[in-house]
Amino acid sequence: MTQEFILETRGLTKQFRGFTAVDDVNLRVREGHIHALIGPNGAGKTTVFNLLTKFLPPTRGEILYRGKAITGMKANEIARMGMVRSFQISAVFAHMTALENVRVALQRPIGTSFHFWKSERSLEHLNARAIELLDEVGLREYADVLTVEMPYGRKRALEVATTLAMDPKLMLLDEPTQGMGAEDVDRIVELIRRVAKGRTVLMVEHNLSVVSRLCDQITVLARGAVLAEGDYETVSADPQVREAYMGSEAETEEASA
Amino acid sequence: MATTQTLTPSMKRERRANLRRNAFYLALIVIGLVAPFAAYPVFLMKMLCFALFACAFNLLLGYAGLLSFGHAAFLATGGYVTGYLLSSYPTLTPELGILVGTAAAVLLGAVFGALSIRRQGIYFAMVTLALAQLVFFFYIQVPFTGGEDGLHGVPRGHLFGVIDLNNSLAMYYFVFAVFLFGFALIQRTVHSPFGQVLKAIRENEPRAVSLGYNVEAYKLVAFILSAGLAGLAGSTKTIVFQLASLTDAHWHMSGEVILMTLLGGVGTLFGPVLGAGMVVGLQHLLSQSPLGNWVSPILGLIFVVCVLSFRSGIVGEAIKMYRKNFK
Predict the structure, then answer these.
(1) Considering CB atoms only, which of B11, B194, B207 is closest to A116?
(2) Which B residues, 202 through 231, put their C-beta within 8 Å of a C-beta on chain A?
(3) Most exposed: A55, A178, B167, B295, by fewest CB within 10 Å?
(4) CA dihedral sign, ordered A28, A33, A39, A41
(5) pLDDT tens column, A84-101
(6) What is the ipTM score, two decimals?
């Protein structure tokens, strides 16, 4: 295998009691790309995400990360290999400060995370790095704020900072702009563009204007199967894609664009 | 070293809060030191043993978010193993008996934990209950526990071969030291790198997984620590009362420790101590009053009232009020 594709699936299939949610998906994510996974509701995007990040076991098929089969690995193991995901609903540690949120991601590699006899002050040398990461996503002044008290858009940014703390090679973002106002969406788009430098991003996204602005490559899913693939122009010109989106997303796209 | 660290204002605030908390603990330690001159030492020792038991339970429920319904098994295992060893080998010193009893509880905790930790919520509680019942019936059958009669007349012996624990003051200070050790260990665990990860898991488990943490391993360590400390409480209690009996293994005991913890305030360090003190104190008071036969219903009623009116327990509510009014 060449290193051209950082992530590849072969015949990935997931069935829930006879219902096929993901059907024979062959996905190839090129190193360095921002790759979007789009499709109408119920197309299986989030299921694919959960399969890729090992939050669900596949019924059939193979997943390769940098040419290595990771199909049988655990969710936390692939995270350590540099494949880090975010979640659809903002996944933060609500009763910890923004700084502590990031620090939890920084502390695992130093290897004292099982040390119950050590003071948490032993983690304070990570604070400077945590503040650097918060700065990167524009949250420096929130370092000290309990996450539960932060506005929604800022929580999503904090999530990105926490993910960055893992120094991921491949970031998987599950609807990063979901539920955001226009201003927040622009900020997150800029943020993703910035942090994607030198990394690969695979994102599930509903907002097609975000997809057209950000992504190099798009895979369209419908009813669990790949419908079309290519850059935004190719995909949006595809009659099948237009049909799958007809009446729902095509209109919202025009409305939001 | 201090110069390379970056502290945010909330950390500085927290350090000041820590100072106040330390002053509070210091006052309590002083009270603990003079208490045996004001109250009956055996009663105080009983309180301390149950307080340690409740603290151990709270480490699991309050800080790892796991509701075990089988903690009696660890209390009893510590008690029986220590009781049996000290009765059978008179040359053994009590601290060694306690050490082995605690180690037995740790081992049992590892077994229970390995079998139950993957289950969530009510299923976790049911698995721990089932395992604890298994242990209960095992202890009825095997000869070394004395079955229904229990182990009586366990010798207190000489601590480190020197200090005679039959002296009730010496016994008291030893129990107090054991309690302080357990409490300090829990306090440290909660505020350690490990405690940070536990907190993250409690707040958002999938996110902790996606940050590379093997959450089951962390929960298992918390479970084993909790089991070991419960065993330590059981071992110490056996030496105090010179008795190990089936009462400690019964599921009532697993329920009682839940009551103590919720009453005092789950997820607060001091809550379980207060809760255990109240339950043991009320049992003692009521059993000596004309209402002696009504101990359980009265405790039940108090429990219901407390749970309905202040959900986060006495200490939990006190902390909330303090935060509201002084910040």
Answers:
(1) B194
(2) 203-204, 206-215, 217-218, 221, 225
(3) B167
(4) positive
(5) 998 877 789 999 999 999
(6) 0.85
